[in-house]
Amino acid sequence: MSGKAHSLEWWKTGSVYQVYPRSFQDSDGDGIGDLAGIEQRLDYLAGLGVDAVWISPIYPSPMADFGYDITDYCDVDPMFGTLEDFDSLLAAAHARDLKILMDFVPGHTSLEHPWFAESRKSRKSARRDWYIWRDPGPDGGPPNNWISEFGGPAWTLDPATGQYYLHIFLTEQPSLNWRNPEVCEAMYGAMRFWFDRGVDGFRVDAVEHMVHDTQLRDNPPNPDWVPSMGPARSHIGRYSQHQPEVLEVVREMRRIAQSYPEEKLLIGEAYGTLDQFLAYYGAELSGFHLPFNFLLIGATWSARNIAGLVETYEAALPERAWPNWVLGNHDRARIASRIGPENARAAAVVLLTLRGTPTIYQGEELGMENVPIPPDRVMDPWEKNVPGEGLGRDPVRTPLAWDTGAGAGFTSGTPWLPIDDRPEMTVERQNADPDSMLSLYRALLALRRREPALAKGSYATLQVSEALFCYERRDNSDRIAVAINFSAERQTVPFEGDLLLSTETTGSGPDPDVLGSHGAAIYRLR
Ligand code: GLC
Ligand code: MG
């Protein structure tokens, strides 16, 4: 057996960085980020030390849901550039050893997709069955009680043919019918289009909503519902979410990914209970390589709670399944705002030292916070549909601030969302500051690359108390321990080790055996 046989796939030891393309870097002054902008900033990403870049949708779209409403799965929206720009970005990324992951949105198209235009024409249309059409319910209203993820009924009446179409998200996002083999083939074809072009994988969107009960039965009410959960959660998605047929589709996607000489990576987005999202690993790991693990994304930041989540997840993982961790994304509150900026450095240590592939959301490495959006600048349709409940996602999608110049180095025009341009939030300032969040992320990512125990070692909890969560990562005899202080008080580190990295700032002269307020540190155990 050659030595190589033991080396792990790149996506196990590597890390993923999510680019929200509208807000990363604008190259043409329209105030919206684009592909050429991403290419200009590849050195930043390579220098940060990430391995793969997942880019949220860049396909042609009327942008009702900012790209998650697609009119052509095999092209690029002019706002973001051209297919040539994409090829250029891909080549430039590969030249830097960076993988590129696209976002694949299987559940719905745009209302303006030619498929839907044809489907809605008549009940006899050849593509009628590509979407989910039903006669009105007995009272003339929607066929069932399902509620759209963004508020309001999940059904819209199309007067031309007198039927309702299903849309799990916006009215502008009609749900595709994955029970129709033609739909499957068309969508698999789109995946192959990008794989053949050289992309390294996909993050697959909202899979829990992809397939629906054949009888379209009413969902039962959710007794635990509160308005801040959003209208859709007022029911339990028993008949609209996590249907077993989703896994059949995922398995087919995996077969396609496996048909390439270097297997393509599939990361799945499915919110749900632990059992629900772990199921997407598939029997014998025939599903997603990495079903996103969102346990940390809304978790209360306490030692016992976080330790409990980590242990539960580790224990529940299917055999040989590779773990992964996420702190935030373009849909959820910024981690620094959710748990407080004082805890954000420790959270970075947790994300990058737990066992499994981490995904970093752009701006987390700068400690970006939710940016308040004045009412007249609200863009997100969710906030427009359900105002004032804090559901809007604009605050977490604001552009990155690169420097202290005009437009924060993001744009020469007017940015599509306000920018938090405090000098200390800029890449320029944080680059030059060894105590910055950016420097901490770089150091953590470098340490992961250097230390096999962190990249691939086993996990074990060392100690959990009210204030402290300590765990060990072990590769053969090499043992690395991580200590996280969840309290504002100083804590003595409960083991003997040599300090490898600390969140303490240099000026405070770190005492290797003591964790400062909300501090975290990494040691090699003696
Ligand atoms: C996913 C995306 C979200 C989008 C939705 C509909 O949850 O992350 O941004 O609005 O799917 O496609
Ligand atoms: Mg632009």
From TrEMBL:
<comment type="similarity">
    <text>Belongs to the glycosyl hydrolase 13 family.</text>
</comment>
<dbReference type="InterPro" id="IPR006047">
    <property type="entry name" value="GH13_cat_dom"/>
</dbReference>
<dbReference type="Pfam" id="PF00128">
    <property type="entry name" value="Alpha-amylase"/>
</dbReference>
<dbReference type="InterPro" id="IPR013780">
    <property type="entry name" value="Glyco_hydro_b"/>
</dbReference>
<dbReference type="InterPro" id="IPR017853">
    <property type="entry name" value="GH"/>
</dbReference>
<keyword id="KW-0326">Glycosidase</keyword>
<keyword id="KW-0378">Hydrolase</keyword>
<protein>
    <submittedName>
        <fullName>DUF3459 domain-containing protein</fullName>
    </submittedName>
</protein>
<feature type="domain" description="Glycosyl hydrolase family 13 catalytic">
    <location>
        <begin position="18"/>
        <end position="397"/>
    </location>
</feature>
<dbReference type="GO" id="GO:0009313">
    <property type="term" value="P:oligosaccharide catabolic process"/>
</dbReference>
<dbReference type="InterPro" id="IPR045857">
    <property type="entry name" value="O16G_dom_2"/>
</dbReference>
<dbReference type="GO" id="GO:0004556">
    <property type="term" value="F:alpha-amylase activity"/>
</dbReference>
